Amino acid sequence: MKYIFVTGGVVSSLGKGLAAAALGTLLERRGLRVLMQKFDPYLNVDPGTMSPFQHGEVYVLDDGAETDLDLGHYERFTSGRLSKLNNITSGQVYETVIKNERQGLYLGATVQVIPHVTDVIKNRIYEVAEKSDVDVIITEIGGTTGDIEGLPFLEALRQFKDEVGHENVAFMHATLIPYIKAAEELKTKPTQQSVAKLREIGITPDVILCRSEYPLDNEIRRKISMFCNIRPEAVIPFLDIQGTIYRAPLNLHDHQLDSIICERLGLETPDPDLIEWRNMVDRIVNPSHSIKIGVVGKYIDHQDAYKSIYESLTHAGAANDTKVEIVRIDSSDIEEDGAEKYLGEVSGVLIPGGFGDRGIEGKISAARYARENDIPYFGICLGMQIAVIEFARNACGLEHAHSTEFAEGTPHPVICLLEDQKGINDKGGTMRLGTWETKMTAGSRSAELYGQQSVNERHRHRYELNQNYLPLFGEKGLQLVGTSPDGTLGEVIEIPGHPFFIAVQFHPEFQSKPNAPHPLFKGFIAAALENRR
Ligand code: GLN
User: Fold this and answer.
1) Whether the predicted model's global pTM rises above the 0.90 cut
2) What are the DSSP calls for 362-390, one per residue?
3) Is the CB of 381 under 6 A from ligand 1?
4) pLDDT for residue 428
5) Contact, 532 vs 408, CB < 8 A?
6) How far is CA 347 from CA 72, 190, 257, 335, 341, in A?
7) At a CB cut-off of 8 Å and minimum separation 6, what does 196 contact?
8) Is there a catalytic annotation at residue 509?
């Protein structure tokens, strides 16, 4: 087993997760079996309780783990399906150490960061290695070198490298090379200092990825090479990516990242087969058509809060030879100015998942606008609940219909908690999470798009469709076409006769890949294209 650890220096948001994922793509295309994972130094047990404004999207895995959004990159860039073992936080590490201590497992020792905390981290790497049948494990370390929280992780990696042998471990360090306009110069000092920080701990990078807005000339690479004690060709430019992030593996391959890593780890493989990947990138960058899709949400200002939704729209666009221009609309703005102003020019409306009542009425107006004006509508999780509330109010005349999440005393609780969910007070990890089966009605549009009646999709929600209202909904034209296998939980609704009105309780965006776009997203974009405005 070979191990690659990816660290970051100077600043955050360097694209380190993307670079790690791109390396995963390249190694897989060389025929290696790859597993990717992330260590996050923050003290939350998982990001499930963090605001998307803080942390971006919470990415949900098959087993229900609520994880960092970089795991979304890993699943989109490689073929692996990840599990809760593949995202560890300091919160989980300390939780384990404290539990061990309370159980007396440390036999009277003083419990310390070294060795007790570092042991838990190392053991996790060994456990993942033992349970997975792969050739290479790529582990990204969140945060920036020099952060206090990150130190135990780096110390654990230093020890780990000595335990499994230097020949089996490679370190890739991503840094920023800032450009100083007044001097017209790229600066290497921050990189030198962040590498010095790593070396202080006993880690020397084998590859330095230099994020930069401008190309690095040989002089700069030579300088970094000399100060950081690595070969000049292992100083790899990681420039801003044009067109699509899926170009990252191609760019890094152009700089021989994969062969340098393979050589370092003694992995003998053929050159990567990148033909299919290149074709996919071409489809994304050079489409024949273009449409606007309105995404109406609450965390619109945050680049990463709906990451997987945006990626899925791109995948579906490429599959339809179409560039999807995403119009990000804050639902509070619709409350102020009405839906027409923001949705007047879009060819499709997507309402993603969400929590909390800010902007809910704006989303309801958006759903109404799409339904009444025959604009393709795709609702996801909260987006399905919104569609149901809107339909109940405006098509069925249930004026104060609502979800009990937002109006506990509503006379028409069309979305509510089921009996056995009441009484759960803990917030972390208590929702309906992970992959569950949905059975769909034969002949429904959704079943047709999927090409099958039974599908497995990932979930993250607490509230459910109240099926007592189904007869009324059916009479007025909205149908439940997908449920849990026992029929108790509503999963998919449709309005037959509308150009495209599908809403789902699950999160299809967690399973779309650039080379395998999700069928519902693909159908949504096809319908939007057909009804282009
Ligand atoms: N807030 C809603 C619920 O808990 C929807 C959740 C979501 O959209 N992920 O059911």
Assistant:
1) yes
2) HHHHHHHHHHHTT--EEEETHHHHHHHHH
3) yes
4) 62
5) no
6) 27, 46, 41, 21, 14
7) none
8) yes
Residue 418, pLDDT > 80, answer no
Query: Does 3.90.550.10 match the CATH number of domain 288-530?
Result: no
Ligand 1 pocket test, pick from 331, 355, 424 with the greatest ligand atom count within 8 Å of Cβ, gives: 355
Looking from the CA of 239 toward its CB, the CA atoms found within 13 Å total: 13
Q: Is 407 exposed, middle or buried (0-12, 13-18, 19+ CB in 10 A)?
A: middle
- Give the tens place of pLDDT for each residue, 291-324: 999 999 988 878 788 999 999 999 999 999 999 9
CATH class of 2-278: alpha beta
**Ligand 1: nearest atom to the Cα of 354:** 8
Kindly report, residue by residue over 518-528, the tens digit of the pLDDT.
999 999 999 99
185: tokens are 């110069």
Q: Nearest residue CA, atom 6 of ligand 1?
A: 461
457 is catalytic: no
Q: Which residue has the tokens 């560039």?
A: 323
Pairing mode of beta strands 59-60, 432-440: unpaired
State what percent of residues in the chain have pLDDT above 70.
Answer: 98
Residue nearest to atom 8 of ligand 1 (CA): 353
CB 382 less than 6 A from any atom of ligand 1: yes
Task: For residues 288 and 495, give the distance between their C-alpha atoms in angstroms, rounded to a whole number.
Answer: 30
Residue with token string 């790690």: 20
The structure tokens listed for 61 are 């895995």
The domain locations on the chain are: 2-278, 288-530
Write the residue with the smallest CA distance to atom 1 of ligand 1.
355
355 lines ligand 1 (CB under 6 A): yes
Q: Whose CA is nearest to atom 9 of ligand 1?
A: 353
Query: How many angstroms does the Cα of residue 249 sit away from the middle of ligand 1?
Result: 35
Tokens (6 digits) for 182: 């007044």
459 is a catalytic site residue: no
Q: What is the DSSP letter of 15?
A: S
Q: How far is the CA of 319 from the centre of ligand 1 (A)?
A: 29
